[in-house]
Write a structure and sequence with these properties.
140 residues; mainly alpha; Methane Monooxygenase Hydroxylase, Chain G, domain 1; 6 helices; 0% strand
Length: 140
Amino acid sequence: MASASLLTTPTTKPVLPSKSPTVFVGCAYPPALASSDEEYANETSEVINKVRSTINMDKSDPNVAAAVAELREAANSWVAKYRREKDLLGRPSFRDVYSALNAVSGHYISFGPTAPIPAKRKARILEEMDTAEKALLRGR
């Protein structure tokens, strides 16, 4: 039988949200303070270069696992910082980088950090990086 406390209605009023600043738990950057356009362009270019250099590494290179770990950290940081920015969500550069990071991360999570990326997937990722870079240069 259910306890009596579960069957009665609460006697306290629900707490309504206040107009005080919102606290973003688990988010490194509040959306309003995340970045400027210049910062976005610089960090996105860094991520693009890191993706290119990591997926073009030779599979026998002893630094592949460390490079993949560094890429995953950079990708997670980039995504956490920019995915809540409403102004960036419609940008082609954001869309392409996000898609490529998702493909790269998914591959390394599924197959391990030393597994080479298949040629077809690698070509698509590099193409997305190229289009994202062109869009960044245009301010999009």
